[in-house]
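User: structure tokens for Ribosomal protein L7Ae/L30e/S12e/Gadd45 domain-containing protein, please.
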Amino acid sequence: MSTTKQSKKLNKSSIKGQEVQKRTIFKPLLTNPYTKKNVWPRIEPTVQVDLLQILETDTLQPLRIWNSFTPEERKLSNSTEHENIITRFNSIMEKLEEQVKSNPETSNPITALFVCRYDIPCKLTYKHLPTLCQLANVKLITLPKGSAKKLAKVTNSKHDIQFLALHRNAIPEKSFLALTIDSTVEDVKIGFLENYENQKLNMNVKYILTEMPIKKKQPKKT
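Assistant: Done. Predicted tokens:
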């Protein structure tokens, strides 16, 4: 009898202990627009393939020609079209950050950023791009798997091209690429950024009342 009573007492104390170690919190629902930070515009696979083909056959030709020049030929060349195409990650990030800060807008900003997400093993490399692209007013476009090698081949580049930024002058108005992007690629939309300049944000966000356990710190073993 004494053993049974002692067992019940331990069970009660352990349950009570678990209850004490919980606290009430307000948790935002998953549909909360203020917690969506990494939403990429959805682009149909067929459209991704079409965009890649346009880049290969037309848009990237100035860069292909420039990369085929010898150092001596580059010194003699007056070509500047290739400067509207950026493929180095650090240079792209620097340009986009400058674009966010620029006021008024530059005359030839980056307007489209193509990313070979499926060819990049580390997601942290591109996780921040939706936020950055919305702030910089840039179209964010995913290319199909295998695009990094295809872009490198068509531009005579030594390394895979995982990121490709195009300035406005690289996408002529009314061109097939411009029309395709405008008609098939949505702007990046992140809820809390749409009103980031407004001091009084519309915080009409639904929350649920729930509980979460409080973890006690375990003493360090000496």
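User: Anything notable?

Assistant: Confidence is low (pLDDT under 50) at residues 198-203.
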